[in-house]
Description:
mainly beta
Amino acid sequence: MKFHYYAETDSLYISLIDKPSADSQEVAAGIVLDFDSEGHLVGIDIDRASQIADLSRLEAEALPLSSIALGNAAQAS
């Protein structure tokens, strides 16, 4: 799973699996779900993300993580 934040558009994309999107559905204002060709959820796009979520903090509870990779911006902080 990957989180991509685009400051220029204030959008957050949560990539659940590494598969291309074949279909999208807006489920609420500014919330779009992306599906692969088999109908499986592959990503979530959130517009106005900084107004909806606290982007300065990320918590993970009880996830079976074997590794954590930080992007360049996170490593510089």
